[in-house]
Every structure is written in C-alpha cells, then in structure tokens.
Here is the input.
Amino acid sequence: MKKSFMLLTLLLSVLVAFNSPAQDSKPKKEKAKKEAKAEKQDKKEAKDDKKEAKADKKKAKDAGDIVAAKEAKADKKKAKADKVDAKDDKKDAKTDKKVAKADDKADKADMKDKADKKMAKADMKADKADDKAMAKADKKSDNMMAKADRKMSKAKEEKASPADYKAPIDRSQKGPNGEEVRTGPRGGKYYINKNGNKTYLSSFKD
Here is the structure.
C-alpha cells in the first residue's frame, strides 16, 4: 500500500512538472534572459573591478617604488654621511694620538732635562766641594811649605864673613831680591841679604 502511494505521488509530480514548462515557458525565457544579462553585467563589473584593482596595485607599486627609491637614496646619503663622520673621527683620533705622543715626548724630554739639570747641579756642587777641598789642601800645603821655607831660611841664615863676600859669583842664579848668588868652597849656593846675613839656597852647607 505504501509502495503504491509512493508510485502515485511520483506520477503526479511528473505530470505537474510536464505541464508547468508549457505554461511558464515564456516568463521563464524572459527571466533567463534577464538573469543572463544581469550575469553579463556582473561579469563586466567584476572585470572592471579587477582592472581597477590591477591599476590601483600598479599605482601603489609605483608609489611604493618611488618611496622605496627615496628611502634608498636617503639611506645611501645617510651611509655616506656616516662614512664621512667615521673618517673624521678616525682623523681626529689619529691627531689626538699624535698630540698625545708629542706631549709624552715633550714630558720625557722635560724630565730628562730636569734630570740632566739636577745631575749637572750635583756635579757642579761636587766640583765646587772638590775645588774648595783642593784649594784648602793647597793653601794648607802652601802654608806648610812657606813655614818650612821660613824655618829653613832662618836656620840657614848666619852672619856673612869677609871671606864670604870674596867667593866666586854664579851668574846663572839670583836671590829673591836680585842678590848675587855665590858659590862656597864645597859647592854650596848662598846669597847675602841686606842685613848682612848669608842665606843658603840648598840644604848643602859649606
């Protein structure tokens, strides 16, 4: 029974479907035409939109390229400026190093000069001390010698006799005040001073 009902329903549907196209064929055709036209319009609009989108994309790309080119140019300029700055910094560093080296050299030279001056001063002081000591020693020695000479002269002085005045004269020698030097019988050299004393020039006595 159920099967028969289904079969009947199916048959009825086929009949309705078969009758419907015959009745609605004209409106359907117009509808289809309208839909085809609308579809064509939509396609055209879609094509235009696509074209416009492509143009916008190209425009954006061109604009992007210009911006990118500007940015690249700016970056290049900046890089060049940085390079120049780096070069200047290097030059300044080199100059500073040179100045520091010169200062160091000058300081060393100054220190050396100071050390040399100090050493020269010390040497001068030592030389002065040596000279003073030597002068003192020489003076002492001279005083001692003079004292010895005075003592010796005093010891050698004796009253001249008439025979002493007759002794031969040695013309090659003179006394301290230009006195004539005479030679004794044993070769001793003497002179007679203004006081009439006989003074020997050597330790050898007649």
